[in-house]
Design goal:
By secondary structure, this protein is mostly helical. Among the domains are: about 60 residues, no CATH class; about 80 residues, no CATH class. It is about 60% helix and about 0% strand. It contains 15 helices and no strands. The N terminus is likely disordered.
Length: about 220
């Protein structure tokens, strides 16, 4: 999904039959009464949105759903960022890992709201992320920021904005704080703060990162 990757023809992208023909094929593939062999012959070349619906439809044959997932993974390499954002909101489990590793903040923000993403995915994302904006997005996400495993992953990643790392320390069990305080691989400030109980210094600090502040500003603007 690299922006420098040359675009190539792949299933779900490039020249396609007319919209009406494609819609008819997609409808036939999604019909549980269609024979699996026929559906398999029709699934190639469908739009990525149709492939998502097929991959997520439990009524359909497992082989057909796996084929749709494979085609969707290929098609995702040629999608624009806006299309990737839309895909991230509804993606099936099989491509969540690839989307999480795309390195695009807007895509990650959308992915965090996907109902199929689980805490293990978010923890892996926090451990691998190198962009502060992506880590800040996780820290600002109400759905995930309270989880113990996510907070530990945020605190351990040196690229996490300092206010978000400090905020992640709050409420962690003493055993976790002790482990963080003794971890030489995390930033010194986070180690020192993890070793301080109670966190009097943290209570006086402005723990709102730029990313959390931006998200709050956007919500306030929408509520006016």
């Amino acid at each position: 999904m690299s922006e420098s990757m040359p675009r190539r023809a792949s299933p779900g992208s490039g020249p396609r039959p007319s919209t009406g023909v494609t819609a008819g094929r997609a409808q036939a593939v999604r019909d549980p009464m269609t024979r699996p062999a026929v559906a398999m012959s029709l699934v190639g070349g469908l739009f990525w949105r149709d492939l998502v619906r097929i991959a997520n439809d439990p009524r359909l044959h497992p082989r057909l759903r796996r084929r749709a997932e494979s085609l969707l993974a290929e098609a995702s390499e040629d999608l624009t960022e806006g299309e990737l954002v839309a895909l991230a909101r509804v993606a099936c489990r099989s491509i969540i890992g690839a989307l999480a590793g795309c390195g695009r903040a807007r895509v990650i923000e959308a992915l965090l709201g996907n109902p199929r993403i689980i805490e293990e995915d978010v923890v892996a994302l926090c451990r691998a992320a190198t962009h502060p904006e992506i880590l800040g997005s996780v820290a600002a996400c109400h759905r995930w920021r309270a989880g113990r495993a996510v907070r530990l992953a945020l605190a351990r990643n040196p690229r996490t904005p300092v206010p978000d790392s400090l905020h992640a320390l709050r409420g962690l069990p003493p055993a976790d704080l002790k482990t963080l305080a003794e971890d030489p691989d995390i930033p010194t400030l986070i180690r020192v703060c993890a070793g301080r109980i109670p966190f009097d210094g943290l209570a006086r600090m402005d723990l709102e990162s730029p990313f959390r502040r931006r998200a709050r500003g956007e919500r306030d603007g929408l509520s006016r």
